[in-house]
Amino acid sequence: MTEMSPLHFKEASVRALGDAELQRALGNMRQGFIEKRSKAAARLPEFEALRDKAKEIKDHVLAHLDVYLEQFEKNCVANGGTVHWAKDTAQARDIILNICRLVGAETVTKGKSMVGEEIAINAFLEANGIRPIETDLGEYIIQLRNEPPSHLIAPAIHVNKEQVAEAFRAHHRDLSPERPLTDRAALLNEARRALRERFLEADVGITGANFLVAETGSTMIVTNEGNGDLTQTLPRIHIVIASLEKVVPNLDDAMTLVRVLARSATGQEMSVYTTISTGAKRPGDLDGPEQFHVVLIDNGRSKLVGTEFQEVLRCIRCGACLNHCPVYGSVGGHAYGSVYPGPIGKVLTPALYGLDKARDLPNASSFCGRCEDVCPMRIPLPKMMRHWREQEYQQRLIAPRLRWALRAWAFVAAQLPTLYHLGARVAAFWLYRRGKKLHGRLAALPYAEGWTRFRDFPAPLGKTFQSQWRGARRHKRAEAPPAGPPS
Amino acid sequence: MSTARDQIFAALREGFKGRNDAAAKVGADARIARREPNLVPARGKPEGRKAALAAFTAMAEEASATVARVNTMIDVPNAVADFLRMHNLPMRAVLAPDPLLDAARWERRKTLELRKGAAEAFDEVGISLAWRAVAETGTLVMLAGANTPTTINFLPETEIVILPADRVVGCYEDALAPLRAKGGDGRHSLPRVVNFVTGPSRSADIEQTLQLGAHGPRRLHIVIVDDAA
Asked: What is the ipTM of this complex?
């Protein structure tokens, strides 16, 4: 497997920019997701109001997370389920392995789960002699390719169809070499055929959860393929893995979130399958699992409650921020070196793994703000990236040269404003003169080679922002009648 | 040594320092018990049965389901056979053992070979009964139970769902409200599984190009029965 670490973001993104296959794959995304979301949003007049409501629901949950988790546990148990608690990755893995061992499981089918990626459950089960099979088509493809996902809802978005065919030929031993796998339909059929057998033979099915409903002790998954439902219906044991913040108060709240989830994610009016599961097989049932386990995983969430990062826990993993991010659109998901790429990853990765292990991520942003514009849960992602940048400075994680430069700048700006304004005016004018030769662009700039090595720097217009602002105010005052007393 | 559960709750309560815990509990319990829809879009509130049916049909077709409409249960076997013949499918299916479906008197259609029960790997066609259907997005609501096994919704390549017209409601909340009381046997808060199904299975995981029939049914055919009683 490729070495995954958020510490290598800069090198990895340079590699990604030069990767022609990846760039071709990322091109598909710009057309697909962005247009579809915008059409779906425009078609529902209540969409913005639903976003407000969705945000309010999650804010309320996060302020009462302990109470809702207790209620969820109580009601899940009352319906015949078993609830397990895991503080961290190691505990979550042990719980899952123990359940598998108790029933003598040899193979496990898996629905798509981000927290499953977080605890790397597949590698762990495999190391312990249990064969895990991903059943979401995208997850299955990257499992065969031995890669991590590169998108929250389209894990194989970086893979082209020729590469999918290659992976199937390498791993499907019963696939005839004569069978053509040139078109997408043939690939889908081949995956369907191969996975059908795995569904039927699995002893345990593991799914994630989009929501946990406190009112009924139910778990909910949202999928398009139906793989999650086969995963949880056919084996004897169903294990749900979910992080703490997935809980919502009641079914009405869950359905409000469902209304913004698919529209934000794929631009669908509704995903094909939204499934509410409550407990195990009941007397008289002709199918369904004999045991229903829910593993609630903290992995650093509880310590975010009550902090400036609490709002990131509103995330419902729709992937809209990735789809609309110019940085993600250029480098793809793997460059981030984290289970969570894109804008949400820039905030969540340092929160879960420590800023020292992910310090480049909050800096990899132009602050264009599109992520916040499209986030159904209205998470202020740019603001939170700024929080991380502040902490990076305070924790002395940035390069000493940069740190000193910032300190010097802050000192001059705050303590010697006259000198600062003079310096800024001189610099703005000098850059303006230099830029004139190249139609207002600068091809090289001292201390800014990181930028100018790849592209021109736009030259200032000759005046500083402050002097322009003062000018505009003077102009306005001269025009407007005298203002009344402040209210 | 404290358990993981204790540690998690201790960490959470650390974050809630200064909160009035008793009031928080009362507030959360009230919220759980409130049980009223938050914000239902106007299109989830169609006026009258006719509008609801029209909206459901349009949205289901948009999601790539096909819809047929018949007068009574007696007409269902012919509608099913017509669909199977049109798609060159075998006249063989697994049928949900719901008593309401018996009213179709399937035996009159002799070419149709039916087996009642849960679906198996070899079943190519499944026939089941919808609990409700939601006009808002053309969504079927299927329940798991002794009479309606979940496997029929996912294993066969073709699924045919019988939908009595009076079961079409406006929004998801309308479908869930009566289930809260039902629970199947009075001991559970809900049936074991509630499946919201909007069109046939699909995936866009290969090059962001949508294809039908990923793992669940490739075809979803809905037969609306105007007078199913």
From this structure: 0.97
